[in-house]
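User: I'll paste a sequence; please echo it back and then give the predicted structure.

Assistant: Echoing your sequence first, then the prediction.
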Amino acid sequence: MALYLLDTHTLSRLMREPGGAIDRRIAAVGAASVATSPVVAGELRFGAHRSGHAALIARVDQLLARLTVVPIDDAVARSYAGVRRALERAGTPIGPNDLWIAAQALADQRVVVTGNVREFQRVVGLDVEDWREA
């Protein structure tokens, strides 16, 4: 059974389109195989708090309560170091939060689910899927 790590782009889309393609895909693969990163949780919470809308903050809280937030551990930190060095050597860096998400997916043997496929495809060995069309 494949395991998936949903990024910020995917979860934002899920919030905008409840019952849409991403929800259908989660149902198809099984909710137990889907998780997110504390980096993503932080990005979503920051965006909600920055908006100042209590309803959005509550929606983010509800969404994250439905998901497993996989902790970052030393295996992820080791993966981060290797991925960052490889990307620097190749001259193809990615954003710092995406780097942590990619490192976590590699360490935990998960597929990154994103609408930002081009960014994540720079990471050698990382499986990437886009669930916007299901």
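Residues 4-129 form a domain with the Rossmann fold fold (CATH 3.40.50.1010). The helical segments are 8-16, 21-29, 38-51, 54-66, 74-90, 96-107, 117-120.
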